[in-house]
Amino acid sequence: MTLPHLPPNVVRAAYLVSSILFIVGIKRLSSPRSARQGNTMAAVGMLLALVVTLLDRSILSYGTIAAGIALGGVIGTIAARRVAMTAMPQMVALFNGSGGGAAAIVSSLEYLAFARAGSPVPPVAGVTILLGAWIGALSFTGSIVAFGKLQGLVTERAVTYPLQKPINLLLFLGILAVSIWLVMQGAPNPAVYAWFAAASLLFGILFVIPIGGGDMPVVISLLNSFTGLATAATGFSLHNYVLIISGTLVGASGTLLTYLMCKAMNRPITNVLFGAFGAAPKAGGPSAAAAGLAGKAVRDVSVEDAATMLAYARKVIIIPGYGLAVAQAQHGVRELADLLKSRGVDVKYAIHPVAGRMPGHMNVLLAEANVPYTELYDLDQINPEFDSADVALVIGANDVVNPAARSDTSSPIYGMPILDADKAKHVIIMKRSMKPGFAGIENELFYDPNAMMLFGDAKDSVMKLVQAVKTA
Amino acid sequence: MLEQLLTDLTIFILAIFVGYEIISKVPVILHTPLMSGTNAIHGIVLVGAMLVAGMPEGPFVTALAFLAVVLGTINVVGGFLVTDRMLQMFAGKAQGAPRS
Fold first, then answer.
1. What is the pTM of this model?
2. What is the DSSP letter of B56?
3. Which one is catalytic: A215, A399, A408, A422?
4. Could you confirm whether A399 is annotated as catalytic?
5. A84 Cα to chain B: minimum distance (Å)
6. Alpha carbon distance A339, A186 (integer Å)
7. Is the pLDDT of residue A54 over 70?
8. Given B39, B48, B67, which is nearest A95 (Cβ)?
9. CA distances, A26 to each of A9, A255, B5 (Å)
């Protein structure tokens, strides 16, 4: 089977149209009303780019491409259709890793093409090929580890071991040295290249392993940006503008989101990546905060009492966290909120920027449960309102409401902007146990005189609350 | 060679600015769809994968090229579908109560 070939200029013009569709598509993502259309536009741009590529004169055989697209299409479709909204972060990580892997392979095959032709690799081509392969491979294995952590296949904790940082640094310098040597050498050396590729894959694993689960929003944004850059590097080696443009757009987007996530936690990116935040607590004396809390007790609340407080409140602010996603409690929460609203209670949702495991995670979950996004408020909007709230209902959130971030300079989360739940008249905290949150630190909010604990699975507790409010 | 590099770099640098401009306006509530939508867009690397898979070569290269096409397609198809699924939930809810 042969298809007619398009002249190169037609292909390039079509790539230009694709690039425009990507840019306008992303732009339309900035409003909930036009966002879906924007995504469709980008998808059309993608389809156009793929179709004209198929008709490019350099494509001589179609068997491999057809088989690959068929298999990849089936896997992608099934995965995208089946995944639960609560599992979205790990799904995005997997898709991201696929892209990174593809970029790494494309770069590597470019290198092998020089080897087969027996011609030296020009320095510029060498640099872009090695960059594309390195970043792509790092993103591939890094995303798989991130997926494993989010899916619970690998421990969520930051994994640390002796000499971790020196080993990582050594590996990084080794990869750098081999890359420089390969570029200087000029003559293609597939054996050394294979070592370079293996080391890059290993580096991705070692890079993400020491980062705790709660920092995954930052990691996923960063890896997304990496895959974008790897794609752009591939574009440099193939001199393909649509690859450069789209890869760079994604690189910029991922970098910006990474920055926003770090800012929301008031922690520099270096602390997130190399700080081993959320590692297993070290043996030894309890922290200052925990010591201060010794002897204090938390107060339990019954479902009935909690329901009564909610039902007769004027204003309730709901603070969802990762626990809500784990328990899949989003639909129950909406039901509870609807019930309260029908009783004339003013209900608002307070969304912390790093609640959940990816940027905007809570927004997606609540949208799935049909919560109008006009009821969702971000940190700056909602914090002044806690003073006038009767009840702050904390569902599966912990570190983002820890007052230690405001007052305790020795706390690892000191300086992180938090939701001022403690300023509400009453705080009801729904939690499975007294286990500390991701940061591994005690939360003095739980010991606050206004605070009450409602222990149990979030979904379970919410459904019981719904029943109890109905009879209140 | 150098001329080609300069052209590539020009496009790269301008794309950084365009990317920054259009993305900095996306509100927090749409960060997850933004991430997953841009995630789908870097699946454009599939174009590169097709270009290397379209040249008949030995079994080793063909196997790798096949893998690249599979991975790239998963990225593209999965990325766009999942983003659409999410945005479907956001669409049509714009008529919620106006923010007071």
1. 0.85
2. -
3. A399
4. yes
5. 10
6. 71
7. yes
8. B39
9. 26, 15, 27
A390-402 average pLDDT score: 91
Q: What tokens does A270 get?
A: 């270096």
User: E strand or H helix at B42, and its extent?
Assistant: none
Query: Burial, A8: exposed, middle or buried (Cβ in 10 Å; 0-12, 13-18, 19+)?
Result: exposed
Alpha carbon distance B83, B76 (integer Å): 11
**Cα–Cα distance, A196 to A158 (Å, whole number):** 26
Interface confidence, given as ipTM, is 0.91
- Name the residue of chain B whose CA is nearest to A53's CA: B47
For chain B, the average pLDDT equals 86
Calculate what percentage of chain A has a pLDDT beyond 90. 59
A88/B82 Cβ within 8 A: yes
Nearest CA in chain A to B46: A102
Terminal Cα distance for chain A, rounded = 72
- Closest Cα in chain B, distance from residue A404 (Å): 25
Residue B15 and residue A248: Cβ atoms within 8 Å? Answer: yes
| Model pLDDT for residues A354-372, shown as the tens digit of each residue | 888 888 889 888 988 999 8
pLDDT tens track for A193-230: 999 999 999 999 999 999 888 888 889 999 999 999 99
Are the CB atoms for A348 and A372 separated by under 8 Å?
A: no
Terminal Cα-to-Cα distance of chain B (whole angstroms): 59
Rounded mean pLDDT of A128-152? 95
pLDDT of residue A359: 82
Shortest distance between the Cα of A172 and any Cα of chain B, in A, equals 25
Q: Say what the pLDDT of residue A2 is.
A: 66
Q: Measured between CB atoms, which of B42, B69, B97 is closest to A247?
A: B42
Q: B17 Cβ partners below 8 Å, 6+ apart?
A: none
